[in-house]
């Protein structure tokens, strides 16, 4: 077969590029630490090396084509991740996992088996499973991998700096002491469209369908994301430790876990430091603050405001050029100033809603009208319709460009601190 890369289908090119992104991400971890667990609620790093390939194999096998059954035990072992809910922590030990050579041999075999089944010129025309489009399944594999490229960055961020190997593109602006004059803009009453129309033919995940039009009353919203400087004023005023600004559930979590400050902040002798992926720097006041939903909610109450609903956030983003220049698509490892990309501005003057940091909304993650779970991934969304997860919108520096589409609905539970997510406030 002719496997000249230039002759491959664009989706196969995208799959190859997504593999490159995740391969390079694992390369920043020194090999001695690939069996560590940087976040207590998550799997060890080695699991994710096997998971990405096992997911693709389990997705494609018997749907696009028959794949050799070379290691059914590993197909199962690496099949499912962990969602950190209810305080349960995994108890496995490094010795419970296969060796790195065994995992990599499995991954190489799976990739070779998959690549050997795809026609180099066009996608397979007749999937084994009727009604499941090869293009749709490839989109799922690509975006699943790219989502992990981001969430793995959250995990690797928690590793000690000297356990990592900074790539050549790791350098970024080191510090900033600019304080942003936070201002609000008016968003007139109008319609927000959540999700995608099923008949549009555009790829989306199951929770993006079917499109819903929501009438949104007028409101005021912060022009910029809340910055580290803004949040520092909240901390200096004692609001972070003031019971009145926290819900009962959030305060109980904060007390039990002894949460004393945002996860990415480090107390220093001369002031706060920020832990970036590869360094500790003076707190940049004009970067967006990354916090949990609980911390964002407390700040909003202190400020006499609220977090936007998903519909308000979507309305505020009207006509924003979400794929213009910006801090996304793995261009940087760190945030940048909330004022860095004025070209990413909505019709109402709201800046920076796509890239530089996901944004919490007050909307609990749930189905849109007409929701139908993917038959090949039944639990992707439905397992999280539990009133414990909140919708986040936009994207971060480590979000792939294809995931920045306005209809994309991300979610995390409200007490998870490790997400590259910030927020902006609204008032009505």
TrEMBL record:
<dbReference type="InterPro" id="IPR016187">
    <property type="entry name" value="CTDL_fold"/>
</dbReference>
<feature type="domain" description="DinB-like">
    <location>
        <begin position="15"/>
        <end position="151"/>
    </location>
</feature>
<dbReference type="Pfam" id="PF03781">
    <property type="entry name" value="FGE-sulfatase"/>
</dbReference>
<dbReference type="Pfam" id="PF12867">
    <property type="entry name" value="DinB_2"/>
</dbReference>
<protein>
    <submittedName>
        <fullName>Serine/threonine kinase</fullName>
    </submittedName>
</protein>
<dbReference type="InterPro" id="IPR005532">
    <property type="entry name" value="SUMF_dom"/>
</dbReference>
<feature type="domain" description="Sulfatase-modifying factor enzyme-like">
    <location>
        <begin position="182"/>
        <end position="426"/>
    </location>
</feature>
<keyword id="KW-0560">Oxidoreductase</keyword>
<keyword id="KW-0408">Iron</keyword>
<dbReference type="InterPro" id="IPR024775">
    <property type="entry name" value="DinB-like"/>
</dbReference>
<keyword id="KW-0418">Kinase</keyword>
<comment type="pathway">
    <text>Amino-acid biosynthesis; ergothioneine biosynthesis.</text>
</comment>
<dbReference type="InterPro" id="IPR034660">
    <property type="entry name" value="DinB/YfiT-like"/>
</dbReference>
<keyword id="KW-0808">Transferase</keyword>
<dbReference type="GO" id="GO:0016301">
    <property type="term" value="F:kinase activity"/>
</dbReference>
<dbReference type="InterPro" id="IPR051128">
    <property type="entry name" value="EgtD_Methyltrsf_superfamily"/>
</dbReference>
<dbReference type="InterPro" id="IPR042095">
    <property type="entry name" value="SUMF_sf"/>
</dbReference>
């Amino acid at each position: 077969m002719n496997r000249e890369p230039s002759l491959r289908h664009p989706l196969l090119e995208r799959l190859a590029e997504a593999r490159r992104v995740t391969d390079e991400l694992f390369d920043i971890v020194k090999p001695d630490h690939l069996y560590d667990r940087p976040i207590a609620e998550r799997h060890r790093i080695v699991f994710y090396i096997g998971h990405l390939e096992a997911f693709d194999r389990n997705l494609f096998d018997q749907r696009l084509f028959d794949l050799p059954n070379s290691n059914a035990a590993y197909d199962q072992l690496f099949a499912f991740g962990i969602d950190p809910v209810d305080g349960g922590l995994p108890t496995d030990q490094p010795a419970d996992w296969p060796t790195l050579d065994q995992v990599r041999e499995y991954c190489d075999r799976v990739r070779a088996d998959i690549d050997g089944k795809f026609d180099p010129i066009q996608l397979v025309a007749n999937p084994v499973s009727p009604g499941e489009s090869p293009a749709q399944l490839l989109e799922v594999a690509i975006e699943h991998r790219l989502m992990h490229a981001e969430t793995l960055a959250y995990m690797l961020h928690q590793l000690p700096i000297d356990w990592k190997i900074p790539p050549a593109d790791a350098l970024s602006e080191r510090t900033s002491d600019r304080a942003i004059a936070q201002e609000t803009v008016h968003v007139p009453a109008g319609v927000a469209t959540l999700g995608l129309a099923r008949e549009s033919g555009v790829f989306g995940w199951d929770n993006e369908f079917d499109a819903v039009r929501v009438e949104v009353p007028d409101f005021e919203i912060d022009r910029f994301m809340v910055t580290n400087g803004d949040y520092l004023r909240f901390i200096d005023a004692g609001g972070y430790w003031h019971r009145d600004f926290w819900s009962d559930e959030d305060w109980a979590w904060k007390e039990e876990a002894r949460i004393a400050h945002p996860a990415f902040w480090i107390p220093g002798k001369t002031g706060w430091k920020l832990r970036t992926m590869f360094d500790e720097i003076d707190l940049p006041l004009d970067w967006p603050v990354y916090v949990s939903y609980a911390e964002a909610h407390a700040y909003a109450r202190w400020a006499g405001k609220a977090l936007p609903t998903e519909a308000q956030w979507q309305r505020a983003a009207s006509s924003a050029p979400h794929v213009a220049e910006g801090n996304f698509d793995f261009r940087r490892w760190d945030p940048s100033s909330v004022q860095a990309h004025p070209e990413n501005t909505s019709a109402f003057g709201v800046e920076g809603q796509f890239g530089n940091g996901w944004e919490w909304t007050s909307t609990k993650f749930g189905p849109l009208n007409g929701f139908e779970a993917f038959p090949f991934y039944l639990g992707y969304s439905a397992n999280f319709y539990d009133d414990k997860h909140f919708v986040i919108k936009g994207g971060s520096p480590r979000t792939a460009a294809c995931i920045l589409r306005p209809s994309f609905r991300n979610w995390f539970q409200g007490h998870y601190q490790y997400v590259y997510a910030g927020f902006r406030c609204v008032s009505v």
